[in-house]
Specification:
heterotrimer, A alpha+beta, B alpha/beta, C alpha/beta, B: alpha/beta, FAD/NAD(P)-binding domain, 7-stranded mixed beta sheet, 16 helices, 20 strands, 19% strand, C: alpha/beta, 2 domains, 4-stranded parallel beta sheet, 3-stranded antiparallel beta sheet, 36% helix, 16% strand, globular, binds flavin-adenine dinucleotide
């Protein structure tokens, strides 16, 4: 286990001493004793989230586009310079291995961020290609600055043209003298940016951001708050909502992009890429990813009948919960993979995978109240649950 | 003549707007008439000074009914409440006392003053939470007015709740209703420092002291608030309290309700004991099948209808309904943050509720002066700095402090008109008091807004400056709010209804009066 | 002495009244009184060499009737309708406000219905009262302060204070404290009479004649229970066993001194906060203003 480049700042802030491990790094679950304020900071002001533990790979050289396009299911030849794209990649059987973000820095340079080690996979497909793959995980640090005040804070920090940056756009700039790549993207479904800069400059960038952000309510926020936000934003998390196929033993544990509702991303009619032929066959997937809104009245009534006020998961959960077609719990039609109470929507929401053939607008989700298992209705909705206009709109 | 509106609502306070939204949602043609140029009444946000948005009157949210949020889909229209994490009480000692939502942290804070209290605090919260559930049920239903079918339902629904209680809890409930806040707390706690801020919540908006019988039950209000579906205390509405009203207004408009501001109603037209329409200040007349007033009972019936149209006992009952405003408000625009001597620096203790209530005697003495017609020379102050949580309401790095101040009796010894002469002195008293704990606060002040009870009456239409449209004392609650026989949101005038805080379940930004009034109306199949 | 069936701790008014009732019912009754005289708070208090302060003045009405009926004790009839206040030479009492007096009566009837199923089922007893009376007024009045209550009537301020003073002074509250009206309603009509001491003598005599034993100067130290049953321990540690023990001393005394606190879970919190003192004057004659007043009361 290694500390993140921001560890000196993080440990000073960490009141709760609540750390978890993320790709071999210590990562704060929350700084405060409870993550709730941090959640609201992201939704009302701006949160500063350390994302350095992501794997960062730079691919440079004339053939870099060819390599990436060979790997990912999305056609990256359509990706313009200074843009980022969300991508997934599959094994030859068409099962998802991982997801990540690709930033096109110039015609021959791509910056690739993902949650599972992927360097070897890239190397494996790079034979005879004219390019260099560099693992920059340790040399580049990253923070996400997420929330409605994010643009103002960056502009306060001296990045005047930040408001020109469009949704999923990227730019190279400098913060406090450090060369920094900024993309307008994130894992919260809010207005937000991700910043990448050399690890040895990490503290000075952090300090600059904190200093410019204080007047705007900026706070460092941990992963628990982020988790609630990403579920509200309807974003799937690898290892939670789907699994890396290479780690899985059975077919049932793996998913195709179609199973995850990511069919829109799969560009089949182009040069061959890993998994292409199998994906052609698997287009009609049995499953699809959906969002659920769990019926409030039934939930409340269940608790009331036990003499309790409704207790809602203020922290996101991420375990598989069966979904049924009927109250008797005879016919399972899918499973929810993560869920949370959404403070901003005032709804209990979950992400789930369900049989495509199941046609109805609600399912029964299992809910344990006081050690007893019950079922309540959950309504099927299309994520994102929370999609504020400022996520895409020109940043003020 | 057939009237063009199914319902006209007089007053665009949050209750009027909730009522409008429910009626419009049920397919009725609804018109809301608001005297001021902004919506929200006492739940309002106004950019009083450039860049600074004040929650001018009401400043924290807790009791807003979750059912309304869901039924009217208020989250969609911008309802967002951010819970407060801390209740901080500066003292003249080294640390002051901060109570946090985290139990362990609160334990260690309280145990500095008393280990006994720190241990009891948990049990205290648990008991009140259990009792608070009953209170929460009471406020989410119409008050029983007699033996109607609806009342029977209420009774039968309440029965299991009561049966669920253990005998000693029932006893606590009775004690809560009759004891003074301090007497009640004495049974749990020994340290004055803890009892003071807790008891202070019992006096908000009343003309009573912390040792006056009957003030204990208000403690319950703090444990029946429901934020985020969990029973929890208070929070800030993002964008100021007014955003709650605006969310209600947007919901109403989305269902087709029409809202007119700067439309002061001067009269309700009554013919044959039936309300037929209203008259606006300019003379414009609007007729409607139903008229619903968001104003307090005195303004509605004495002011708009006129005693001549009312039966004798209604006139009597209205005369006995007391207002007696006792609080004022001071809003400050600052270029920095206050620095409390007992806990210097900028910390999370500033993000919650800051109570100037150093001891029980301090609070009782504040009341003493009010009894004889003067504002407290050292008042109880409940201050919040919402800009720390919600940066959108102040320019970057600048802040807003909202100070709720008690006691400021409407009836000064020199008469209530004297408030215009004493306003400035009142504001300075508040600053002096704050500076005892946070010196040099004045250096940071850019602007200051002072609201005396007289201002609350004149600007907000709150009779005698009472923040709750009439005192929340036991004799003015439930089936007696506003008077025996009128608790069903009806008035003796047919087709004239009431939906403001002067009706059950009373004041506070909870929307319940508006909701229940609308539902009562809808049951009538208007 | 053989073990009595019931031990009554304290020979105050209540202890003695209980003694009369129980001994009349044939129970073997022993009254243990700490002080040298019986009567408790209603006993004559001697001071100087020749003077005694008589028992205190008013009795809530109904109690004389009750005593009459239940115990067969005849209590001296009211000597005069004592006035609560004087105004312009005229006396007046709360009874001059008939609405209050009515409400007060109703309240007392309601309060006297024991909360038992049987008595609740016997609707004859309470339903008519409930329906007849101004439940409406009661509900509104009870939470009020004395002053708020009286302000609903046409009175002048001096009358207010005369009416309210004797009531709120007994509690830790002021004339403007909420719930003062409750006290006022409870006392809204009363038959005043002099001399509790007379009552004490009568009660004591009645108890003894029924065979009850009254021991004065016998302080109880503790109330206990062991395998042989409940008993009291006297100062010298001698136990006296009985089937029942009836304590009439204050709850605080019971909890703090007589009972083992471990035995009591959830003792109801009862507050006792003294708020008044007595000043007794021995005078060689009545002051003029008292003798000349038309409302002069007969002195016992
Ligand atoms: C200083 C202050 C602080 C408070 N703090 C809190 C708090 O922190 N938390 C909390 O829960 N509650 C608080 N309250 C109480 C709460 O704000 C009120 O109880 C609640 O807002 C009342 O809402 P309402 O809709 O019933 O009435 P109002 O908000 O009073 O609405 C009445 C409306 O009618 C309009 N009107 C008046 N006359 C006319 C006319 N003739 N024609 C047309 N329109 C007219 C008024 O302008 C107003 O908009 C506070 C109140 C005040 C004054
Ligand atoms: C100053 C004053 C003025 C009052 N004025 C009036 C009035 O005007 N009208 C009115 O109606 N009421 C009045 N009261 C109240 C009234 O006197 C009492 O409420 C009443 O006498 C109580 O009777 P009791 O039998 O319940 O208790 P008590 O009279 O207190 O009797 C309890 C007895 O128990 C004995 N005891 C206690 N502990 C022990 C022990 N361990 N062992 C043995 N014995 C024990 C005590 O010595 C006492 O004799 C007044 C009281 C006071 C003090």
């Amino acid at each position: 286990m290694v500390p993140s480049p921001f560890y000196p700042r993080q440990s000073a802030l960490s009141e709760s001493m609540d750390w978890t491990r993320w790709n071999g790094y210590y990562a704060p679950q929350s700084y405060q004793l409870q993550h709730e304020n941090e959640y609201h900071t992201i939704r009302t002001a701006a949160g500063l989230i350390d994302i350095s533990p992501l794997f960062k790979i730079s691919v440079t050289g004339p053939d870099s586009l060819a390599l990436l396009n060979r790997i990912v299911v999305r056609d990256l030849s359509r990706l313009k310079e200074n843009r980022v794209a969300y991508v997934v990649w599959c094994d030859p059987d068409g099962f998802v291995l991982g997801d990540g973000v690709v930033m096109k820095q110039d015609s021959e340079t791509f910056f690739f961020m993902c949650n599972d080690p992927t360097c070897a996979w890239l190397q494996k497909h790079a034979t005879n290609l004219n390019l260099t793959i560099t693992d920059q995980t340790e040399t580049i640090a990253g923070v996400a600055l997420q929330g409605p005040c994010a643009a103002k804070i960056l502009s306060h920090a001296g990045i005047k043209n930040i408001s020109d940056l469009k949704y999923f756009g990227a730019m190279s700039t400098s913060i406090h003298g450090s060369q920094t790549w900024i993309s307008r993207s994130g894992f919260t479904g809010d207005l937000g940016y991700e910043l990448w800069f050399p690890s040895d400059q990490a503290l000075s960038v952090w300090d600059t951001l904190v200093e410019s952000g204080t007047g705007f309510g900026l706070r460092a926020t941990g992963l628990k708050a982020l988790d609630v936000c990403r579920i509200e934003a309807g974003l799937l998390e690898q290892g939670v909502d789907f699994q890396n196929a290479s780690h899985m033993l059975t077919r049932a544990q793996k998913s195709t992009p179609f199973d995850l509702g990511l069919g829109w991303m799969v560009h089949l009619d182009r040069d061959p890429f890993v998994g292409q032929s199998e994906l052609r066959k698997k287009q009609n997937s049995r499953y699809t990813a959906i969002g659920l809104e769990i019926d409030w009245n039934q939930t409340r009534d269940l608790y009331e009948s036990r003499g309790l006020p409704p207790a809602l998961p203020v922290e996101a959960w991420s375990s598989s919960v069966p979904l049924y077609r009927d109250h008797a719990r005879q016919h399972q039609v899918g499973y929810a993979t993560s869920g949370t109470w959404s403070p901003i929507l005032k709804k209990y929401i979950a992400l789930a995978t369900i049989e495509k053939s199941y046609r109805s607008d609600s399912v029964q989700i299992e809910l344990a109240v006081e050690h007893e298992r019950h079922c309540v209705d959950a309504y099927i909705v299309q994520p994102p649950f929370y999609d504020p206009p400022h996520k895409r709109a020109p940043a003020a | 003549m057939s009237s063009s509106w199914d319902a006209v609502i007089i007053g665009g306070g949050h209750n009027g707007l909730v009522c409008a939204a429910y009626l419009a949602r049920a397919g009725h043609k609804v018109l809301v008439l608001e005297r001021r140029e902004v919506m929200g009444g006492a739940a309002v946000s106004e950019e009083v000074f450039p860049g600074f948005t004040f929650s001018v009157a009401s400043y924290v949210i807790s009791l807003f009914r979750p059912r309304i949020i869901r039924e009217l889909e208020l989250a969609k229209y911008g309802y967002q409440v951010i819970p407060m994490d801390c209740a901080f009480q500066p003292l003249h000692d080294q640390r002051g006392l901060a109570r946090w939502s985290d139990a362990d942290r609160t334990y260690s804070e309280i145990s500095r003053y008393s280990r006994h209290d720190a241990e009891n605090y948990h049990d205290f919260k648990r008991t009140l939470t259990r009792l608070g559930r009953i209170a929460a049920q009471v406020i989410s239903r119409p008050a029983p007015t007699g033996f109607s079918l609806q009342d029977l339902r209420t009774h039968t629904e309440m029965l299991p709740l009561i049966r669920d209680l253990e005998p000693h809890e029932l006893q606590q409930l009775v004690r809560l209703l009759t004891l003074s806040a301090v007497d009640f707390l004495d049974e749990w706690f020994e340290s004055d420092i803890l009892k003071a801020p807790l008891s202070a919540s019992g006096i908000i908006g009343t003309f009573q002291g912390v040792r006056s019988p009957g003030t204990a039950y208000v403690l319950l209000h703090h444990y029946m608030g429901e934020l985020d579906g969990a029973f929890r205390s208070w929070g800030f509405a993002r964008g100021g309290t007014g955003s709650v009203s605006l969310a209600c207004a947007k919901a109403a408009q989305a269902h087709g309700a029409v809202i007119r501001t700067e439309a002061e109603v001067t009269q309700v037209r009554v013919r044959n004991n039936r309300a037929t329409g209203i008259v606006l200040a300019g003379g414009e007349e609007i007729s409607a099948r139903r008229i619903i007033s968001n104003l307090d009972p005195r303004r509605t019936l004495h002011g708009l209808v006129g005693a001549v149209h009312l039966p004798e006992d209604t006139v009597n009952a209205l005369a006995h309904f007391t207002y007696r405003g006792s609080s004022g408000k001071v809003n400050l625009a600052l270029d920095g943050l206050p620095d409390f001597t007992c806990r210097p620096g900028i910390g999370d203790h500033l993000r919650g509720d800051i109570a100037i209530a150093p001891s029980v005697d301090y609070l009782e003495q504040a009341f003493d002066e009010a009894k004889y017609g003067a504002f407290s020379s050292r008042p109880f102050i409940n201050a919040v700095i919402p800009s720390l949580t919600d940066p959108s309401i102040a320019p970057p790095g600048k802040h807003v402090i909202s100070c709720f101040v008690q006691y400021a009796p409407y009836d000064l010894a020199e008469g209530h008109e004297a408030w215009s002469l004493q306003r400035e002195a009142f504001g300075q008293t508040v600053l002096d008091t704050l500076e005892e704990f946070a010196p040099k606060l004045r250096d940071h002040i850019e602007h200051m807004q002072i609201l005396t009870p007289l201002d609350l009456e004149r600007d907000f239409g709150l009779t005698e400056g009472n923040i709750f449209h009439g005192e929340l004392s036991l004799n003015q609650l439930l089936f007696q709010r506003p008077a025996w026989g009128m608790a069903g949101y009806r008035t003796p005038i047919r087709n004239l209804w009431m939906c403001g805080s002067g009706t059950h379940p009373g004041g506070g930004v909870m929307g319940a009066s508006g909701e229940l009034a609308a539902k009562a109306l809808l049951r009538e199949r208007i | 002495m053989q073990n009595p069936e019931v031990i009554i701790i304290g020979a105050g008014t209540n202890g003695l009244a209980a003694a009369v009732a129980l001994s009349k019912a044939g129970m073997d009754t022993l009254v243990l009184e700490k002080r040298a005289v019986s009567g408790g708070l209603s006993a004559y208090h001697r001071f100087g060499t020749k003077y005694r302060i008589p028992g205190f003045r008013p009795y809530p009405d109904g109690s004389t009737d009750m005593l009459n009926k239940a115990l067969g004790i005849t209590f001296p009839q009211p000597t005069s309708a004592n006035s609560t206040g004087l105004w312009n030479g005229d006396s007046f009492d709360i009874e001059t406000l008939p609405e209050l007096a009515d409400a007060g009566k109703a309240l007392k009837t309601l309060l006297s219905i024991p909360l038992k199923r049987a008595s609740l089922r016997n609707k004859m007893a309470w339903l008519p009262t409930l329906l007849q009376t101004q439940t409406k007024d009661l509900a509104r009045w009870i939470p009020l302060s004395c002053v708020d209550l009286l302000s609903e009537f046409d009175l002048c301020e001096k009358q207010y204070s005369a009416l309210t003073a004797p009531l709120y002074t007994r509690t830790f509250a002021g004339p403007k404290s909420p719930f003062g009206a409750l006290q006022m309603l409870l006392h809204a009509n009363r038959n005043n009479s002099n001399g509790h001491a007379v009552l004490i003598q009568k009660l004591e005599a009645a108890a003894r004649s029924n065979g009850a034993v009254i021991q004065t100067g016998a302080p109880v130290k503790q109330i206990c229970r062991n395998s042989s049953g409940v008993h009291v321990l006297m100062q010298d540690k001698t136990p006296i066993y009985a089937r029942f023990i009836l304590a009439t001393c204050s709850p605080a005394m019971l909890r703090n001194h007589l009972l083992n606190p471990v035995l009591i879970s959830r003792w109801p919190p009862v507050r006792s906060r003294g708020t008044c003192a007595v000043l007794a004057l021995a005078m060689d004659q009545l002051p003029g203003w008292l003798t000349s007043s038309p409302a002069c009361c007969k002195i016992d």
